[in-house]
Structures are given as structure tokens and as C-alpha cells.
Amino acid sequence: MKKIFWALLLLLAVVATYLLFWPVPIEPVAWKAPTDARYVGRFEANSKLQALKFVDLGRDNGPEDAAIGPDGTVYAPTHSGKILKISLADGTAAPFAEPGGRVLGIEFSDDGTLHAADAYRGLLQIDDKGAVTVLTDEADDGSPILYANDLDIAADGTIYFSDASTRFGARDNGGTLPASILDLMEHGGNGRILKYDPATGRTTVLIKGLQFANGVALASDGSFLLIAETGTYSVLKHWLSGPKTGETETVLENLPGFPDNINDNPDGSFWLGLVSPHSAPVDGISENPFLRKVVMRLPAYFRPKPQRYGFAIRFDGDGKVLQNLQDPSGDYALVTGAIDTADGKVVITSLTEPRLGYLEEP
Known about the structure:
Blueprint: H1 2-21, E1 53-56, E2 67-68, E3 74-77, E4 83-87, E5 92-97, E6 103-108, E7 114-118, E8 122-126, E9 132-136, E10 148-153, E11 159-163, H2 176-186, E12 191-197, E13 202-210, E14 213-218, E15 224-229, E16 234-239, E17 248-252, E18 257-264, E19 270-277, H3 280-284, H4 289-297, E20 310-315, E21 321-327, E22 335-340, E23 346-350, E24 355-359
Antiparallel strand pairs: 1-24, 2-3, 3-4, 4-5, 6-7, 7-8, 8-9, 10-11, 11-12, 12-13, 14-15, 15-16, 16-17, 18-19, 19-20, 20-21, 22-23, 23-24
């Protein structure tokens, strides 16, 4: 019995030493997470996303973003690295391009060329045959683009895009989800917004110090850029013209989930996906860097994980919520965003689902 006792004591000592002192890749910064206001008021719970219809993606999954091509067809990048061409009318999905990385955000320019933010490769351009060109994979200051996430294109061809983390690159940290967890747990302000000028080929830093820079979308008149700051449950507005040029303000704060992609609509409104609700355990230790390190030493099975909950909102440039679509059952979950189609449908995208969702009558 004494041998068993001392063996157990030794085991506990080893486990305690590991949890307290084993090196982890993050250097957490203390911050105070907002109190989760839950699903009330403008975010009142509903089941509107349960009316979704679906297009099966076959062997692919994770249609992270979507864009309407010049042919009126839906295009969506998937976890495999492929970009699919999807017909809602006949429920088919076929490969369009294989950039070879992990495309997260896509947008068509006015001339019909597809542009993509690839978390592994940087900012890409893809022609109508699926041929891929890397436009940029580093900023003018020499810093590499480690986690290109989302983008939007101005009328003059300038591309604004997010580099979610300058410390935890998606390729070198096991993929987009593991890298995002590292950045969110550190909360070190590693995100930034970049600006690519097609006339000069220059890539400049527009904003830095963001807490996981995610979705981006331009106002219809190009006067401001909206940014989903996932790590603070917020949407920011950065002014590009007018008397507030260069200023950044918050238009949505204390969202009931982690904001992901933002897409602009023809009527001047915007769609935003909320990929997962607040994590109470993570929020609870936001002010304690030491405990955040302990959590990162736990086996992956025991760490906090995204919760399945479907959620997307439409809002205006001042942050007024115009539409609220939810599915508390999480049947179609980890919603990353939404886009309008020309015939009045709303396409709903997801981080993990093996199908693309859409609403006939939102």
C-alpha cells in the first residue's frame, strides 16, 4: 500500500508540475471580457435558421465564405483548399479552383476576377479558368502575412484584407482553428488590416494591434471599412474618407458570440456571422494570464471548444441590427457569414459543415 501511495503521490506531483510549468506557445495578456448579455433585446433568440435548405458538398466541408460570380453562381472555399462552384437551383457543387492552401475569404472584382485571402499563402488572384497568382505574401515592412483571413475590394481596385495574427500563422500551428485559439487565448493584439494597391503592388499596414482581425467589408461609397475583431466580440468602423479619416470606432460591442465574416449588401447593409457563443470558461479567466497558460497545457479534449449554435445578423453602418437569424439547436452551426443572391435568397456559410445553407425567404 505504501508503494501505491508514493507512486500516486509522485504521479500527482508530475502532473502538477506539468500543469504549472510546462512551456506553452502563448504569452497571455490580461484583459476583462465583457459580461455575456446572452440572447435578449436586438439579439433575442429565434429559430429562423431552421428553415435552411442545403446543397451537399460531397467530400468537402467548411464553406467559410461565399461570393456571387459574374455568372450568378455561388462560389465558396472549403476546408480541403478547393473553391467550389455551387448551383442552388439544381443542388450541385463542382470544383472551380484548387489554390493549394486554405482560402477563407473570397470576393469578385468589378472585372469578374476572383480574389482570395488564403490563410497559408496570402492574397491571391484567380482567373476564370482557375489559375492562381499570389499577389502578396508580405507587407512592405518585410513582415510575412501569416493568416490572411477576409477581404473586400474598393471601386479603384484597392484590396483591404485582414491578417488575423502576426504571431500564430495558420500553416505553422496546425491549421486555422488551432491557430485562432492560440491567438484568442493570448489576446496580445497580433492582428492587423492590410491594404494592397494593384497599381504599385505595394502592401501597406493600415491598422495594427487588433485582437484577431477577421471579417472586413467596405461601405458602398468607400468611406469606411468595417472589421470584425473576434477577440473582443466587436465590430469596428475605420474611416477612409471624410472628417474622421484614419479614426477607428466601435459600432457593435459585446456581441453574444465570436464575430467572423462581414459581407456588404446592395442596400448598404451588412451581414455578419457569429461563429460560436461566448465561452464562459475562457471569459472567466480573461484577467488571469497564469490560468490561461494552465488551460493550454490541458489535453485538447479538455480545453474549451466552439459551441454549436447558428447565428447571423444583418446590420447597418452605424451598428443598428436589422435582421436576426438564429438556430439554437445548432443543426447548421459555426456560422461564419451570409450573402444575398440576386433572386432574394440568403446564403449562410459555416466553418465546418459538409453542406452550404441558404434561406429561400429570410
